[in-house]
Structure formats: C-alpha cells, structure tokens
Amino acid sequence: MRFSTGTRVAALASVWLSFTSALPGLGHDNDDVITRDVAIIGGGASGTYAAIRLRELGRSVALIEQRDELGGHTHTYYDAAAPIDYGVWIYTNNTDMERFFAHFNIPLVAEILNGDPAYTRRYDFRTGEAVAALGGNIIDALTRYVGILLQHPYLAGGFDLPDPVPEDLLLSFGDLIEKYDLGAAVDMITQFDQGFAENILDYPSIYILKYLDLAVIQGIQFGFSRPASRANQDLYKAAEAELGEDALLGSTVARIQRQDDKGTSAHHKDTNAHHKGTSAHHIVVDTPSGKQRIIANKVIVAIPPLLENLDGFDLDDRESDIFSRFQYSSYYGSVVNVTGLPRQLQIFNKATDTPYHVADLPGTFTFNPTAVEGIHTGFFGGGAGSLPEDQARQGIIDNLLALRNAGYPVSEPEIIALRSHTPFGLHVSAEEIAGGFYRDLYGLQGYRGMYYTGAAFHAHNSAELWEFTERVLQEHVLVD
C-alpha cells in the first residue's frame, strides 16, 4: 500500500493524531506531518541511491541524513586548482553505477591505476625505515586468489551464504594465505583492503575476499570509472538539488513508532488495539528547524545498524540481539598541505616486524599525491571501535614527520580537511558467521516493515552497494 490519495493521507493523519500522546515528549502542536511511501534513514551512497531510484519509479520519499550534505564516505575538497577526493575515489563498473551517473548527466571517464613500482614506496610510518617488497610471483599468487573467489560467486551479491558456511571463508586471512600460498599478493590485497582494525591477518577471510573481489580485480586490470570532473561529491550535490525538500539534512531520528508484521505497534499491542490493520510507521525527526513528523508505509535503514545508531527505533529482542553483535573499526580521510614528498609518489605504510609487513595499526595506511602540488591525501584507521578525531589528526602528522627519517624534507604538515568514516567495516567473528549470523541478518529484510541496505549488508564499494540496493528495492520494498 502507498499513500498517494487524499483520503488515505487524511486517514493516516487521523491515526497519527490519535496516538501521539503515547509517544513521550510529543504534544499536539501545529507541526506539519509529511506523508510518504518510503522514509529512508541515511543519505550515504545506498540511501541516496534508494531515494533517487524510488522517485524515478514513482514513489514518494523522505530522506533523513545526519550531516549537512549527502554522500556518506564521499568527500571532495574543492581546491581552487582542482577538486580532491579524499573518501570514495573510484568505482567498479556495473549497470546500476552507469545508470546512476547518467541520471544526472554526469560523464564518466576510465581510471587506470598506475602500478609502476617507480611511483610507489613502502616505509614503516613509525620510524621512516624502508621496507622491502614481498618476494614471490605475484601473478601466480593472484591467480590462486581469483580461484578462491570463483569458488564462491555468491560473495559478489552480498552475504547470502550457503549452510554450512564453507571452511575457507571462516579461516583467518593469515591461515588462508598459508593454505593457498598467497604471500606474494598480500601487498596488493592490503592496498585495497584498508580500514580494518588492528590486524587484517586475524579477520575471517570472507571479509578480505569481499573487499578485493572480482569486480575490483577487473578494475585493476581494465580500469575503474570516475566522474570526468574528478569530483565525486558532484553526484551528491546533484542528488540534493533533485530531492529538494525531500532531503532532511542535518537531521536525526528521535523516535520511530513501528508496526509489527501484523500491523500492530510492538510496544502498544494491548493498549492501542485501534491501530490494528494499519502498516504506517510514525517517525519523529530532529531537524535544524525543530521536530518534524513523518508517516511512511515503509522504512529503509541505510546507516550502520549498531545499537547506538538505532536508539529510539522501537527495536524488539530479535533485532537488538542481531545488531548488538557487530564490531567495527575507525577510518579517517584527510587532505594535507605538506611539502617535501615527491609529487607523483604514493607511499604505503608497512611494518618491519610483522608477518607480510602488514601495517602496525592504528596508523596511516597511505599518503597519495593529488593534482595539486603540495597537497596529499592520507587515510588513517585501525583499532577496535572509535578513535577520537584528535588522535587521528596527530597520528597523520606523526606518520608524515617520520618520513623525514627516510630522507624526505617534509615540512610541518597542515591538515586542511579531515572526515571520519567511523564506524567502518562492521564485522562479526568466524564463529558467529558459522552459526548463521548473516542468515539471521538478512532475515530482517521486511521484518516489521523495515528494510536494510549499506556496507554492513555487503561491502564498502559504492557501485556494488547501488547494485545491492537495487535488488532490495525490486525484490522487497516494491513488492512486499
């Protein structure tokens, strides 16, 4: 059912007014009530795509985003000389990605990554000591890695796993390396699998395989895509303009009065029998101009589904139990004004005293040159849970200054932009995966009128998230 007629709007508004007194802190003021087919919580890659696509398909939407702009992990620093992306940078290629950019008439160009060793260096960012490249035949190791991916094609679509879950997916990444002799490829794998917590070798291998998947490997071979403007934020600026007042920026959900699968409020089954038979969700949103009330038939959650993010969401025990199991790490993108580094050089953090020289974390994963002389991007992360912004900021500066010991005349760094991607890389233990965690997680699609998308349900890859979100819309939201 969708709310598209005046009668239905009036009826639902009446239902809303009849029970607002049941929600603590809400009175009968003159706030307008927004009535929509779908409310979308989170305006990152997945939420923005869902909002634009649903409107394209004739559904009305309200998009609620905490920040003052859309885009999630997409950040562009608009320098006078050239735009600099310091979040999402490139896109793997698929139909939904191409269609999304075409919707806004944003042209794409191919981005071929330069794998020339002459333009890369490896240092221990703690000391500035040079670290040698790993030995072995990288082509043979990557061929074996691709062979593993080909055994598990379902990983390209998300976490819809077979039962029992294959043993290789549950092995720690370190054990997978040993089992299949992947050591020579670890450098490349860790270059693309950034943002993990303290030791990537301890993660269940399923997460590594999903981040460096076949689509990414094809991009490495044949090219990725990016906007011709070199500014990924342009996509989300266009989306903001199209959504207009349907995008509630700088806004958070204060409370959702949700319905269970029988159309009855989970917290008011006995005292509010008059709601039975309705499927509306009633949402109170804190906006810059005050509280806004929304009535929506369905809700899409496109934010990290952690309990601290879902306060006020009227969760039941089943939902709370699943979401409480997630762990995560911190990840920051930065733009740094610093001289003394070669303009074309990409510098990777590698440790001298760890297996396969994986970086010691928390720390900066890499410093990358940009189109603007004297400006680099740096990506910092690691650690279990949240790292304070001041720790990330100081860590980036300390890692740059350590490169003086490598012989580079590094100036005093100035961080001119810093954005947090925390919580990043939501994950659970191998034991929980084997016990059916993702079966239970995916079982929440449509439960009590709530639908889910985002990186926790697939991977930190915008193009693949758009593809995943399209399936959620077509297979669930538009038909349930």
From TrEMBL:
InterPro entries in the cross-refs: FAD/NAD-bd_sf (IPR036188), Zeta_carotene_desat/Oxidored (IPR050464)
Signal peptide: 1-22
Keywords linked to the UniProt accession: Signal
Keyword Signal annotated: yes
Pfam families in alphabetical order: NAD_binding_8
Annotated segments matching region Disordered: 259-280
Gene Ontology terms for molecular function: oxidoreductase activity
Ranges of compositional bias, category Basic and acidic residues: 259-273
Entry-linked Gene3D superfamilies: 1.10.405.20, 3.30.70.1990, FAD/NAD(P)-binding domain
PANTHER family: FMN REDUCTASE LOT6, PUTATIVE (AFU_ORTHOLOGUE AFUA_7G06600)-RELATED, PROTOPORPHYRINOGEN OXIDASE
The protein, known as: Amine oxidase domain-containing protein
Organism phylogeny: Eukaryota, Fungi, Dikarya, Ascomycota, Pezizomycotina
